[in-house]
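Hello,

Following up on my earlier ticket. Below are the four sequence lines again, exactly as submitted.
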Amino acid sequence: MAAQAQYEELVRQFSAFGAVKRDIRRLTSAECPSGSAAVLALLGRHGDMHISRMAELLAVDMSVTSRHVAQAADRGWLQRLPDPADRRSRILRLTPEGRERLDELFRHTTRLLAERLADWSDDDVALLAPLMARLRDSFDDCRTGSRPAASPLPRPAPPGSERTTRTPASA
Amino acid sequence: MAAQAQYEELVRQFSAFGAVKRDIRRLTSAECPSGSAAVLALLGRHGDMHISRMAELLAVDMSVTSRHVAQAADRGWLQRLPDPADRRSRILRLTPEGRERLDELFRHTTRLLAERLADWSDDDVALLAPLMARLRDSFDDCRTGSRPAASPLPRPAPPGSERTTRTPASA
DNA sequence: TATTGTTATACTCTATAACTATA
DNA sequence: TATAGTTATAGAGTATAACAATA
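Thanks for your patience. The regenerated structure is below:
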């Protein structure tokens, strides 16, 4: 458990990171909307999966995921295969074209990063990635419920207290 | 200069960080759109500034900044004061209400972060913030031209090679 | 003529809600 | 009845372009 001031500084940095993300997207995204890019990246990293799993990893509603997937499928970057075990589900799989697009995007972004961080020490670069990975894990755990889930804060959590991935479907 | 593989891992983590950002926004933003939040955060951190400076720090077009600022002004969170030195410019200043809103947002986010990172060591938390700060600086330097600016990559930079903050204004 | 800021238009991302086809 | 996925609609964020006022 760290000091309050450290969390506060982290909050500031998270806010400012948006500028870095926008810079990267502007300079590397050509031909590939960021929604598709995120879908391709997760398929490349985790392999075939269902839409619902994708929505969970993206931390967005499944309706949003469905559209991003549809766009990527329209462009031939992935297939939605029938799942023999459950005919409601579809299995997402990267096509060779999708893999190519992902590789290209990856190359461009890596190149940009290498340029911007040219004056960083090897050690500092090596330090940042694992910390961000752990950060994401710390949030993932709460979202997917693989942990006590920590109280939902005194604040929001008004009606459904959803865990995302799904809009309530009232009635 | 780090190894290629390290930059690649960093690229993956940047992509995945979007999920963390969405989580945070969903759980803390109540009553304050993220555009306004970003504007308030920068005013709180850097003090009074012009719109153009704000656009630079946000790394978005000035037209976007102008709208976010207008929204925050409509809600009484900031003032746009005339600049006696240049009547085209306006000086942005946080109002007491804006400061209050910013403090509240900050409190909520800090609380969420403290909860999610409860099992992190003091050292790890202390490590992440400065690394992200430096990351942002490494990008800022290129954007605002306070550094050699590194070649604009073989890739894009087609016509105007803009530095953001401004749409070309053809003709 | 160039710069600061604004507005109009269009596109993307996102959430909510309602709908389908399966389980 | 509940779940996987889709679609419709609406709300933000963003970029491009054109415009006003001032330098």
